[in-house]
Amino acid sequence: LAVVALFVALDQQEERRWRWGALMVSAVATALAVLTRSPGIFLLPFAALVVFLQWLRSLWQDHAVPSAPVENQGNVKRTTTFLLTCFALWLLVAAVTFVLLWPAMWVAPVTTVREVFSAANDYAEAGHDDPIFFNGLIYNGDPGAAFYPVTLLWRTTPVVWLGLVLALGLLLPAITNRWGQTNSPASAATVRLPRFMRHLYKPTGVFQPSLLLVLFVIGFWLLMNLGAKKFDRYLLPVYPALDLLAGLGVATVGGQLAQRWLPRFKAYGQPAVIAVFVLVQAGLSLPHYPYYLTYYNPVMGGGKAAVNVMQIGRGEGANLAAEYLNQQTASRGQQSATAASAFPNGPFSYFFAGRTVPPTYWPLADYAVLYTQDVQRQMPSARQVAWLAAQEPLTAITLQGIPYARIYDLASAPTPPFVTTWAQAETAQIRLNAYELTAGVVQPDERVHTTLYLENLAAIGENLNVLVRLVGEDGAEIARDEGWPWGA
To answer: What is the average per-residue pLDDT within 468-487?
Structure first.
């Protein structure tokens, strides 16, 4: 909204007047974007770039080149003053909105802003708290620069692809034309173009917003690529921009081609092309209702192929798993059942009538819900995932041909061979059910946190320490830590 409103505000700049309402909407939307997510700060330099490009375009229109007449220099000065004033007003409205809607800025503005940038920097450098699955591999750190381009291929649609190809047909001829060969921007913009397309490439047409959308997509992608922590959802602002760009390609180039190839239906060419594209787009997306995140580009192989490349599942179908367990526990007469799920405070626990615990607490649960992303990332541990996968599930929740979740009855399952018990007497007193290590790359002198999931089975007569040793491949001890476990 911030970007589109800014484009609308720029639309009337040729007459030295902006649409002030659109300018205010853009400023307020920018503040809301920054308040929602810190990457929204990208809109500030992008808006400055938009104004700068508008200034360059004004120079071109006013013939403000070294050979231009002296009388045109007054227009340049007025344009520069006008654009700087508008940008300053835009910044002021955005800043006031930001402060008014965040009470922390009323009390400690400097500290608040510093913490925002500090947190963003930490997230960018630290990477993921948990492993991430991408392109068939498990990463404990940055999945690499190919992550976002690949996710774009899987998450966009063939309709958008075709629209972007048409948009390239809109941009490339205008970029490659020799605008400097003539004193007239209008005539320079139409050199060597098909007659039916000439009006599209004037600086006042759709060329400028198309180019700005491309710059927005590239700029935001580069910003997100700087961080070690990457998720496909972090690139969400790019998708509306790509859709708009594809829409411009369909409505302009696609419409013009339809009118040229079907002259008898010239009046209906553009609306017909747009309608066909909208219907095809709807046909690709609506079958995924209400779990639209189950969509993966059919050109890339669809959901069944995406399992081998993309991390699958953000909670889709978790409510169905909860509803199944509610029916299961009711039929068995269980008053209070416990289920282990990767969503202990989310889309599963909201619908499950019993108690929900994290997967690492599975020995305390009656049921376990294993999601596809758990299998992909081997969480909470590879041996636990392998043990569960070897059991017979009660049922599987399948969406679009993908088994998003499998439900297991732990009460009737055998004790896993990897569970370790410790006994000071004949009866086992402590059981190590699972452990977790800090995800990511460990730097020299960096502290590594290890979480041990211990279960007390019987009374212990004395206080005990926990000894953790780090051993190399050759068996030599690298480091050790001994003491009372935190929280004991």
So the answer is: 84
Neighbours of 220 (CB within 10 A): 21
Contacts of residue 388, Cβ cutoff 8 Å, sequence gap at least 6: 368, 370, 406, 408
Give the dihedral of Cα atoms 139, 143, 146, 152; nearest 10 deg. 90
pLDDT in tens, 340-377: 999 989 899 999 999 999 988 888 899 999 999 999 99
Structure tokens at 300: 């890339």
Cβ partners under 8 Å of residue 273, min gap 6 = 250, 251, 254, 255, 257, 258
Q: What is the pLDDT of residues 191-235, one digit of tens each?
A: 344 443 444 444 445 677 888 899 999 999 999 998 888 889 999
SS3 content of the chain, % helix, strand, coil (to 5): 55, 10, 35
- Of the two residues 310 and 177, the one the predictor is more confident about is 310
Which ranges constitute the DSSP H helices of 156-254?
A: 158-176, 185-188, 207-225, 238-249
DSSP string, 9-38: HHTTGGGT---HHHHHHHHHHHHHHHHH-G
Q: Is 475 left (phi over 0), alpha (psi -120 to 50) or beta?
A: left
Q: What is the mean pLDDT of the chain?
A: 82
d(CA 244, CA 213): 8
pLDDT band of 464, cuts 50, 70, 90: confident
Q: For the whole model, what pTM was predicted?
A: 0.79
Query: Which residue carries 């909208």 as its tokens?
Result: 278
pLDDT at residue 238 is higher than 90:
yes
Say if CB 209 and CB 3 are below 8 A apart.
Answer: no
Cα 424 to Cα 150, 227, 427, 452, distances in angstroms? 54, 49, 8, 19
Q: Which residue has the tokens 């060329």?
A: 207
Q: Which residues, other chains included, contact 422 with Cβ-Cβ below 8 Å and sequence gap of 6+? A: 428, 429, 430, 431, 432
Between CA 169 and CA 161 the distance in angstroms is: 13
Cβ neighbourhood burial of 176 (10 Å; 0-12, 13-18, 19+):
exposed
Cβ-proximal residues to 224 (8 Å cutoff; 6+ apart), any chain: 39, 148, 230, 234, 235
b/e string for 366-392 if b means 16 or more Cβ within 10 A?
A: bbbbbbbbbbbbebbbeebbebbeebe
The one-character DSSP state at 385 is H
Residue 186 has what pLDDT? Answer: 40
Rounded CA-CA distance 293/347 in Å is 14
Q: Which amino acid belongs to residue 267?
A: A
Residue type, 480: R
pLDDT tens digits, one per residue of 46-98: 999 988 888 877 776 655 444 444 445 566 777 788 888 889 999 999 999 99
